[in-house]
Design goal:
The chain has 13 helices and eight strands. With about 300 residues, it is of the alpha/beta class. It starts with a helix and ends with a helix.
Length: about 300
Amino acid sequence: MLGPVILAASRSDALRRTLSAAPVTKPVVNRFIAGESVEETTPVVRSLADQGLEITLDVLGEDITDPSAALAARDAYLRLIDALAPLELGPRAEMSVKLSSFGQALPGGHDLALKNVTAVVEAADAAGTTVTLDAEDHTTLDSTLAVHAELRERFPSTGAVVQSYLFRTEEDCRVLAAAGSRVRLVKGAYKEPASVAYQDKAEVDRAYIRCLRILMDGSGYPMVGTHDPRIVAIAQDLARRAGRKLDEYEFQMLYGIREAEQFRLAAEGHRMRVYIAYGTDWYGYFMRRLAERPANLTFFLRSLVSRG
């Protein structure tokens, strides 16, 4: 039950300052964060693409507290799109965005986030790629899905993310699994109350498989966000049963986690996309990675001890 404790710690400013200042932290964080700037990150993108992997990029930063910071987040993505252009990867390198970065939680935040993300989606489309809207805590979901629906009217390849631990997700999958849609299914990495989300890991896993079946049987393009080898195998079986070819769905995994499995799937002909996060605001993202998998926490603590 360490996950909820770590998620609570992810909101602690005091712990953020302590860990950020510790000299042993950065080398460990670098396992999950590709760099602090776009200049540090693009060589990583190039290297992975050369090895047959696809990419989605997240400029770290969320819980924006003023409109100027939301504009800065928008501009960071616009710089990213410009930096990707010389790589000529097209849709093999897309963007993942959190609407909280674009001001969703501010007064009038829905319209502000829509305006800011639209500029990013327009630029991505002009560059021959696309954007996926990340899921955050359940209180933002209706707004995020409404933004997604509006964006798809002009940019139908805009992706959405759903989280299997929420009770509502099976119905959301039925709605989203339409022709031309792109839907990433993940288990969920935020602390959610028992009134809206499954709390038991086995229940979350069972819900994930139910949702995955809906997406595979639908008319859209499923994006299977998992590091669980059992679910990888189930996804392959469900895809075969649904008559899907290898290019009609994809796997997605986080940068720095199960890298050998990423290369194995790509070598077998699967589309395998790596979620790469970069930026200086790494703390919340890093803590959620620790909360997701006990092995990540073990790795972190062992590294602290060995480096100490």
